């Protein structure tokens, strides 16, 4: 199964191709793991996608308390499958109300350098496949050099 995920990550790696969506945010909520911020979830009116954005990664930074539900925003996202989390659509950039719908004001590095996401995904896929190869190789060496046949051990022939 691990090899399958590694192969999927390696084969499906691609540069991001941002798509724009403008709408009114009906849901905006920060997600935490314990006390550590993970991301902000955004749902736009009439859109079934669950958008996720990592606000601290945006440059320039977004003003505190933004975005808000009821606010018109524009999102740039990669429409392809997010293999890291199949239930979410990753936001690459956004513009708040009044900042314009035609340019991405607050951007992640992947928006400015679309090939970086593909390179990172290829490295993770290759790393997973390398780990699988290491595990298989070590188990083969274990089977080859460490026999499970207890008849070969000298202490087994001693009777008490």
End-to-end separation in angstroms reads 48 Å
Question: What is the residue-mean pLDDT, rounded to a whole number?
Answer: 80
Annotated CATH architecture of the domain at 17-111: Beta Barrel
How many strand segments?
A: 6
Low-confidence stretches: none
Structural commentary:
The model has no long low-confidence stretch (mean pLDDT 80). Helix 1 (2-12) packs antiparallel against helix 3. The protein has a domain at 17-111: OB fold (Dihydrolipoamide Acetyltransferase, E2P), CATH 2.40.50. The chain contains 3 helices and 6 strands. The two termini are 48 Å apart. The chain has helices spanning 2-12, 109-112, 114-145, and strands at 19-33, 36-44, 51-53, 72-77, 89-95, 106-107. Strand 2 (36-44) and strand 3 form a beta hairpin. Strands 1-2-3-5-4 form a 5-stranded mixed β-barrel. By secondary structure, it is of the alpha+beta class.
